[in-house]
Every structure is written in C-alpha cells, then in structure tokens.
Amino acid sequence: MEKRIPIIAGNWKMHLNLASAKELIDEIKKTVMHTRDREVLVAPPFVYLISVREFIADSAIYLSAQNMHWDEKGAYTGEISASMLIEAGCTHVILGHSERRHLFGETDDFIDLKVKMAHQSGIKPILCIGEDLSQRENGETFEVIKSQLEGSLKSFIEQRTTPYDLIIAYEPVWAIGTGQTATPDQAQEVHCFIRQWIGDTFGRELSGKIRILYGGSVKPANISELMAQPDIDGVLVGGASLNAEQFIPIINYDKKEG
Ligand code: 13P
User: Fold this and answer.
1) What is the mean pLDDT of residues 86-100?
2) Residue 24 and residue 21: Cα distance in Å, rounded?
3) Read out DSSP for 94-125?
4) CATH class of 7-20+30-251
C-alpha cells in the first residue's frame, strides 16, 4: 500500500495578530527544518495570508486559507476567490468547516461548488465533515458522514471525475474546542468508514492515497495515540495550533512505523 505523508495543520480561525503570528511561525520554522516525513500547514485569517507567506518563505510550511467563494469573480461583497488565494500564496483551502456550516449557514450544495472550484483552480481542498453531539447520541454518525460526503462531492460523483487532490478532515462537532477528543478508536472507526466510502465511490486507487485528518481538541497529550491509527493521516488543530508550546510537540509527535 502506498505511504501517505502525514499532515499537521493549524487552523488559526479568528485568532492571533501579525506580531504573534510572526513569532509563532519563527518557532515552527525551526522545527520544520528537521522534519521531512510530515507536512506542516498553517491557515491564518485572510488578511494575514500575504504577510505569513513572507514569514514562511524558505521553509517547507504550507499556507492554507480558511474558506473561499465558489465563483471565479463577481459582485460578492466580502468574498475571496480561489485565484486570489493562489496569488496570496495558498496551496490549500479549508472548506465546509463546521463553524461555516453552523454559524454561517453553509450547505453541502455550496460546499460542493467550492470543492469543485478549488480542484479546478489547483488549490487543494481540505473538506471538513463531522456529526454533532445529538447525531452521535442518536447513532446517526455514519449516516450523517455519508450524506455530507455525497452532498459535498456531488459534482464529482455526477460528472464521474476523481477529486485526486482532495484532503478530508473528520471533525466531530462535539469535540471542537470542548476539550473532549474522540477516542482513537472512535476516530479510527469513522476514518475507516470514510476511506471505504471513497473507495466505493471513486475507486481503490484514490482511497489508498487520500489523506484523512482528524480534528477536535487535538493536544500534545493525545496526538501520538491518534496518529497511531491506521486510517488517521494527520490532524487539523484549532486552539493548540496558536502557541508554539503546544503546536511544536504536536508537529513532533512520535511516529510509529507500521
Ligand atoms: P480545536 O482543536 O480547538 O478543538 O479545533 C478544531 C478545529 O475546528 C480545527 O479546524
């Protein structure tokens, strides 16, 4: 089976300022210089992207946006296009984060258009999916995940094209910012389901290659256990990605060779 390079991604959400971003990047750079077997990525707020691109210059850190619009251009006040993100130095974009879905009303239909536009534009989509607490308690987790995948990747399914650059982030809503991490077994079970679905829908070649990240209260204390699971290929970290004391040990987790 093909080796999947782990991704450690920091989603800054609406946090930090330029000075603290620079300090944090300087620390991350020192660590990343010595790490070749994993990819490290940061997702700052839009207005910091161009500055952070300068901060990470000459390092192997990747730059991601936290959202984007689905159209090429147009009268969309307050929105940002894929080509603008690319010009700002982004290689990745987080799409369909649960905060976008729940606080800003983003539906699978919108997310599908965004994933398609990212793919067409050459910016790698990190598609977020995950069930909320009541859905988990009602035993609906797999149903919800399946429906989010079907909805957010509808264009690819209908047009029979393969989202070969797709990255998926499984983020159970009940674990985001709550300190309540999914157990490695709980996360593995859903990751395995996602990989199976990708294989059934787009073929085994993609399911062997696609990287599926876990997000939700990832900390230095739980990273190694999570990363030891066969279908967890990385993490999308919120709170603990905002300071070097926590993010650096996460980047440097012990990798168990399997
Ligand atoms: P926390 O790590 O703060 O739980 O956030 C996770 C997340 O939403 C990353 O996108």
Assistant:
1) 98
2) 5
3) EES-HHHHHHS---HHHHHHHHHHHHHHT-EE
4) alpha beta
Cβ of 215 closer than 6 Å to ligand 1, yes or no, is yes
Q: Say whether 181 sits in a helix, a strand or coil.
A: coil
The answer to whether the CB of 218 is under 6 A from ligand 1 is yes
Q: Which residues pair with 237 in a beta bridge?
A: 10
Closest by alpha carbon to 32, among 1, 16, 9, 48? 9
**Residue 87 appears among annotated catalytic residues:** no
Whether the CB-CB separation of 68 and 117 falls below 8 Å is answered with yes
**Dihedral sign, Cα of residue 142, residue 194, residue 234, residue 222:** positive
**pLDDT, tens digit (0-9, with 9 covering 90-100), for 29-67:** 999 988 889 999 999 999 999 999 999 999 999 999 999
- Residue 43: exposed, middle, or buried by beta-carbon count in 10 A (0-12, 13-18, 19+)? buried
CB atoms within 10 A of CB 54: 10
Residue 258 pLDDT: 44
CA 75 to ligand 1 center in whole angstroms: 31
Give the count of beta carbons closer than 10 Å to the beta carbon of residue 238.
Answer: 21
pLDDT at res. 3: 87
pTM of the predicted model as reported, rounded to 2 decimal places: 0.97
